[in-house]
Structure formats: structure tokens, C-alpha cells
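Example record

The entry below shows one chain as it appears in the dataset: sequence first, then C-alpha cells.
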Amino acid sequence: MSKKVLVICTSLRANSNSDKLAKAFADGAASAGNDVETVSLKGKSIAFCKGCFACSSTGSCVIKDDANEITEKILNADVICWSTPIYYYEMSGQMKTMIDRANSLYPRDYRFRDVYLLSVAADDGDYVDEKAAGGVQGWVDCFEKARFAGKVFAGGINDAGQIEGHAALEEARAMGTQV
């Protein structure tokens, strides 16, 4: 059965390695017959959450910017795949801001069940993506019908476009075919 897959690219860098990893995942998911949409945070206006919790009662954020449209896409997807560069052993700030702004999903009837994380960093240690994965797990833990379904980490990657030929691209593509 075909699923609606939303891939959210959070890097703001041109020729981003994490975007290339996201494309591999998206290509894999599409090749398996899924409906795949990719959204980039590049050029988007996404303000910080004010912590007012108005969204808990209204189901929508009081801040009127691009985060609301992305949140609606998250609401209506079966599968969410976050893609981020790792900064200081954590997800990008823009990814965290988008996650915070999607708080209006909490009281709503969201469709997503599987959540994935793709990440890239200059450091190639096994532990490098642990805090980012923990952040995604924390978000998933707030949605009882969802699960953190998998992750792919590409370490040792720094310069723009450097991911070409990295084994993580095939790993992401293969993971995409399994959604």
C-alpha cells in the first residue's frame, strides 16, 4: 500500500550533504511506489516558538509564517523523514525550531506513524548523532501512535557535496524502499 512520505531537509547550505542523503531516501521511497514530497527549510521564514501554548487549544500556531504550512504537511503524512547536518553533536537549530513550531500537532489527529532521521557530520565517531537521534526520539515520544523507525548517519563529511560515493547514500536509499 502506497504511503504519503514527507522528507524535511533542514540544512540551509547550498549543495548540502544532508540534502543529498535526503534525496537518496526520497528516491528509495518513490521507487517503492510511495507518494514522496520533499520540503526544504531553505528560504523559509520560521520564527521561534513563543511558548504560549495557544496551539494546544486551537490546533494551530498564532505565529503566521512558513512553519504552519510545513506543520500541515507533517499532519497529513504517513511517514516523516528529517534530514539535518550535525552541529555541535546535535540537530541543526532550524530543525529544532521547526520541531518546536509543530507543537500544534499534539492535540490533533495526526497520520504519521514512522519517523526517520538522516544526518551528516564532519566527525565520524559512532556517537556523533546520538543527541540528534535523542531529540527526534523525544519528539516521537510525545505522539503515542508514532515510532522512531530508523536513522542513517554519514560521518567524515564536511565540505559541500563531499558525500558523493559515501555508503550512507545507499543505506538511505535502501531505508526509503522499506517505508
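Notes for this example: Helices lie at 17-31, 54-58, 66-75, 93-101, 130-141, 167-177. The chain is about 35% helix and 20% strand.
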